[in-house]
């Protein structure tokens, strides 16, 4: 059976924040409105700053990887495809001293521009393992960027999620937005949460926080329904059609089946539970809180179970059709 999961009654997919009409019959002075905005924005900024500091500390503890450690799946004069272990940063971010896959690939292969950042065409989160493509020439960089922008790269992920997903296949069509209650994480977008953004000051919370909701589509297929330490889990193939930030994590949580080992969007995580939705808005086959808690306890300290298993695209220079696979560790 195939299921398509969406919340059209709750979610906005196209309207911008500025399109909302102001609340009527509410008398406020400019001074009181400015004060309320300042307090709300300051609160969001304080939460966001604290979380970003925590994320920086986590990045600082990333696993080291050298050029000799690389699991090279494919290489030619234009591109390199490698399989990234969980716990390794794809890029070092603002702190160039941190170890990263990008740095190891650059040290081993180099590139035409002799700039490490000019190899990067996409990335995986530190906790996600799997296939990553790097460019070695300027032509390959331009070509790969064009392929990703036009969604001509197919990426399939393998994940273990909490509970047994009832339907054998389906799609999750839920727009995403930044969560001002748990910044800078993501959540499913709703009218109410979009309206709340009107009270925030972009100069304090940043423009990304106030962006319009992003249409987001994930397709899934159940590979198997399994038992892990006495707990029900499902092995899924996930296809991120739209490729939004944290899309797979939020979408899985929003259908009541968070990814096993997800300490951000999973049970008692740093972000809003259920992708920001209420329990009553989840499907009937959702994993219970008791099951999620048991799995979280059993997986404490272990890597998150999501792996970029396959990637397919047309070579940016030679135009050859390429497809690569990588086995997950879970």
Question: Radius of gyration from the CA trace?
Answer: 21 Å
Structural class of the secondary structure composition?
Answer: alpha+beta
Helix percentage range: 10-25%
> How many helical elements?
7
Give the overall average pLDDT: 90
Largest sheet: 10 strands, mixed
Please state roughly what percent of the residues sit in beta strands, choosing from under 5%, 5-15%, 15-25%, 25-35%, 35-45% or over 45%: 15-25%
Q: Which residues form runs of ≥5 with pLDDT under 50?
A: 8-39
Straight-line distance between termini: 26 Å
The number of strands is 12
Structure description:
- 24% of the residues lie in helices and 24% in strands.
- The chain is α+β, with helices and mostly antiparallel strands.
- The chain contains 7 helices and 12 strands.
- 38% of the residues are buried.
- The strands form 2 sheets. Strands 1, 2, 3, 4, 5, 6, 9, 10, 11 and 12 form a 10-stranded mixed beta sheet that branches.
- Residues 8-39 have low confidence and may be disordered.
Attribute tags:
330 residues, alpha+beta, 7 helices, 24% helix, globular
Secondary-structure blueprint:
Layout: E1 2-6, H1 30-60, E2 71-75, E3 79-84, H2 101-109, E4 129-135, H3 138-149, E5 154-162, E6 169-173, E7 176-178, E8 186-188, H4 191-196, H5 202-205, E9 217-228, E10 231-240, H6 247-254, H7 289-298, E11 306-314, E12 321-325
Could you give a short description of this structure?
This protein has 330 residues and is of the alpha+beta class.
């Amino acid at each position: 059976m195939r299921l398509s999961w969406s919340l059209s009654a709750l979610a906005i997919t196209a309207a911008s924040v500025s399109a909302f009409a102001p609340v009527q019959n509410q008398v406020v002075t400019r001074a009181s409105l400015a004060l309320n905005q300042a307090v709300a924005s300051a609160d969001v900024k304080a939460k966001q700053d604290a979380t970003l500091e925590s994320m920086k500390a986590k990045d600082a503890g990333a696993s080291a990887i050298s050029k000799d450690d690389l699991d090279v799946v494919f290489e030619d004069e234009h591109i390199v495809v490698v399989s990234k272990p969980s716990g390794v940063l794809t890029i070092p971010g603002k702190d160039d001293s941190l170890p990263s896959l990008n740095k190891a690939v650059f040290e081993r292969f180099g590139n035409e521009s002799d700039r490490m950042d000019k190899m990067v065409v996409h990335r995986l989160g530190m906790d996600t393992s799997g296939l990553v493509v790097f460019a070695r020439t300027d032509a390959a960089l331009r070509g790969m960027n064009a392929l990703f922008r036009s969604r001509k790269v197919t990426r399939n992920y393998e994940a273990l999620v909490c509970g047994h997903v009832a339907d054998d296949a389906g799609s999750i069509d839920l727009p995403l937005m930044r969560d001002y209650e748990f910044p800078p994480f993501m959540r499913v977008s709703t009218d109410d949460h979009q309206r709340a953004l009107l009270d925030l000051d972009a100069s304090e919370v940043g423009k990304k926080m106030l962006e319009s909701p992003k249409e987001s589509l994930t397709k899934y297929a159940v590979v198997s329904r399994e038992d892990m330490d006495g707990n029900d889990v499902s092995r899924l193939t996930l296809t991120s059609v739209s490729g939004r930030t944290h899309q797979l994590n939020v979408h899985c949580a929003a259908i009541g089946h968070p990814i096993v080992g997800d300490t951000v969007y999973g049970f008692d995580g740093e972000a809003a539970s259920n992708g920001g939705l209420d329990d009553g808005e989840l499907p009937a086959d959702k994993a219970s809180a008791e099951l999620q808690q048991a799995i979280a306890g059993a997986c404490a300290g272990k890597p998150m179970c999501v792996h970029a298993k396959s990637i397919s695209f047309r070579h940016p220079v030679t135009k050859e059709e390429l497809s690569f696979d990588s086995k997950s560790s879970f």
